[in-house]
Specification:
Elements (H helix, E strand, L loop, with lengths): L1 H8 L2 H27 L5 H15 L2 H24 L7 H31 L5 H11 L1 H26 L5 H31 L11 H12 L1 H36 L3 E6 L4 E5 L4 H7 L18 E4 L11 H9 L6 E3 L9 E5 L21 E12 L2 H5 L4 H22 L2 E6 L2 E6 L5 H25 L10 E17 L2 E7 L1 H15 L4 E4 H7 L7 E5 L8 E6 L1 H11 L1
Helix pairs in contact: 2-3, 2-4, 2-7, 2-8, 4-10, 5-7, 5-10, 6-7, 6-8, 7-8, 14-15, 15-17, 15-18
């Protein structure tokens, strides 16, 4: 049991969580610190009042332990991550995050020594007036350095947050406000810094009320005591030396490993004839990146998606056994035994693979290792298909411009109903339409929205039919099918003609239900999962079981006539 517990504590997932948690602690510290700077736009006194709250939060024993524990943990895990990477070829965003992260200690060590350390050792009064006089008047070059450090810290943290949140269903809806905040926080912090510097530099500035002669004496002692300055210089040398030494150890370890593995390489062959020689222990995804071979990896090579999967054409029985994370992903997609995740597979012998998701030829301009090659994300959504019944008969004797007029009226009412319900029109095909629900909401809400939209479409089509009754040879009727389930939602198309759509078996089922509505001569056919998730009362509604191509078992559906469909809307209101 102890071995199991230890392995779970030090598993890759636990390590990623520790890195994320420590990063969030430091991001919270930076956010509060920069917000404190922004108070300088009001006055130096306002910023000083904010500083007292800030230091009370982070300079108590618990806050100190949490903050500096997070800093040491994060730096250690970043250096570990650099070491275990077999290749430093990576997407530009990841590279920027690593480079900026390594620059942060070099930019901030002096600032930490000049504030927290000398305060703790010598009682140095590191308030805004004292620090701003140093950074704005005494050593303005250090002030510019701190502004640069502020930007680097904030940009590094925002990249990390983006990578963490980008696959959350709600992230798309809040991305714009978060971007505005991400821009405003450093801008306001820098403006507050500048305003405080200008204020303190004014000859008429009288300063903040002194907090005590004893503290002023301590400040004078630190400024004039050679022993104190020698001790601080030793601390500075130790911190810079420790960080440089840690980097040197990582680089040396990577160099030693590379030298040792150079004589122990394997060949990864691709179906197109490309051969990439890599040291034993590289993943197949790293081999693709090293060889410049386009290879999807939506999750960034963390084993959380299946877009990097490959089929192993050579002997796959002797490959390393998939770990728990890879097994879970492969099981979810019902992968064959010869299919593996390229980001997790570390072959021990030569092998031949075929990436199962290949970029199209038009994607050649997109860098192979960037996240722009994402084919989409899997979501639980609801899909609605609708079609005008007997449309050909209705329009066979009408002029083309009259048909265009009718279709535009029809498309307008469908689009209006879908958008008001919270969905998104995917496409119009002839007299048919496809709509998606649940891209940014829960599956339950998606199903409720789809039913509301279907009822509104049915009601509005009846109203349009009555309006155009004198011009139509047949009554205007609609057929709608709704189904829910997992689908891959992504941007597809060519050139400028690109749009968000859904791909998957459930989309085909929804289309089949729309056709079933025509066969049953009703307005709406809804699958049982939609009714259950929506919590719709289907009492008194006829149910049937239909066979859907590609499904082994019949699918239970509810057959809803026009009057009942309208009642659904009234019930939701």
């Amino acid at each position: 049991m102890a071995i199991v517990a230890a392995s779970s504590i030090f598993s890759e997932r636990s390590i990623r969580r520790a890195r994320l948690g420590s990063g969030l602690v430091m991001f919270a510290f930076a956010l509060l610190h920069f917000s404190n700077h922004a108070l300088g736009l009001i006055s130096v006194s306002a910023a000083e009042d904010g500083r007292r709250f800030f230091t009370a939060l982070w300079r108590n024993p618990v806050g100190t332990l949490v903050l500096y524990g997070a800093i040491l943990t994060h730096i250690g895990l970043v250096l570990r991550g650099i070491y275990i990477r077999r290749s430093l070829i990576m997407p530009k965003g990841e590279m920027a995050q690593i480079v900026l992260g390594l620059a942060i200690p070099l930019l901030l060590i002096d600032h930490v020594i000049g504030t927290r350390i000398v305060h703790s050792l010598y009682g140095y009064r590191d308030n805004y007036e004292t620090i701003m006089r140093t950074l704005w008047i005494t050593a303005p070059g250090n002030g510019l350095r701190q502004i640069f450090a502020l930007i680097i810290v904030w940009f590094h943290g925002c990249i990390g947050l983006h990578y963490w949140l980008r696959y959350r269903t709600w992230y798309t809806d809040v991305a714009a406000p978060l971007l505005a905040i991400a821009i405003l926080v450093p801008v306001l912090a820098i403006l507050g810094f500048i305003e405080m510097g200008r204020t303190i530099a004014e000859p008429a500035y009288e300063g903040i009320v002194d907090t005590g002669r004893y503290e002023a004496n301590l400040n004078a002692r630190y400024a004039t005591d050679p022993q104190a300055r020698a001790e601080v210089a030793m601390i500075r040398t130790g911190l810079y030396g420790s960080f440089a030494g840690a980097l040197f150890v990582v680089v040396a370890a990577r160099t030693h490993r590379r030298w040792r593995e150079r004589v122990n390489q394997i060949a990864v062959r691709y179906q197109g004839g490309e051969v990439v020689n890599v040291p034993r222990g590289f993943t197949v995804l790293e081999a693709s990146r090293l060889g410049g071979i386009p290879h999807y990896a939506v999750c960034g090579g963390k084993g959380q998606c299946s877009t990097c999967r490959v089929q192993v054409l050579s002997s796959f029985e002797n490959l390393p056994t998939p770990d728990k994370l890879e097994q879970s992903t492969l099981k979810r997609i019902n992968a064959a035994p010869d299919v593996r995740l390229a980001c997790q597979l570390r072959p021990t012998h030569d092998l031949t693979v075929v990436p199962l998701l290949l970029p199209a030829a038009t994607e050649a301009a997109v860098p192979a290792n960037t996240q722009e090659t994402s084919p989409g994300r899997e979501r639980e959504i609801a899909v609605l298909f609708c079609d005008i019944r007997n449309f050909t008969t209705l329009t066979e004797e009408r002029l083309p411009f009259d048909i265009v007029f009718l279709l535009n009226r029809y498309f307008a009412l469908v689009g209006n109903a879908v958008e008001k319900a919270g969905g998104r029109i995917d496409k119009f095909i002839g007299d048919g339409a496809m709509a998606l629900f649940g891209i940014g909401t829960s599956p339950e809400e998606a199903c409720r929205q789809a039913l509301v939209a279907a009822a509104a479409i049915t009601r509005d089509i009846e109203a349009l039919g009555r309006e155009l009754s004198d011009e139509l040879s047949l009554p205007l009727r609609i057929a709608i099918g709704i189904h829910t389930g997992p689908a891959v939602v992504g941007t597809l198309g060519y050139g400028r003609v690109r749009s968000t759509t859904a791909i998957g078996d459930m989309v085909n089922v929804a289309s089949r239900l729309e056709a079933a509505a025509k066969e049953f001569d009703v307005a709406l056919v809804v699958s049982e999962p939609v009714a259950m998730l929506a919590g719709a009362d289907m009492g008194g509604i006829e149910s049937r079981e239909i066979n859907v191509r590609g499904r082994a078992l019949p699918l239970k559906v509810y057959v809803i006539p026009r009057d009942k469909a309208t009642e659904l809307l009234e019930g939701k209101d």
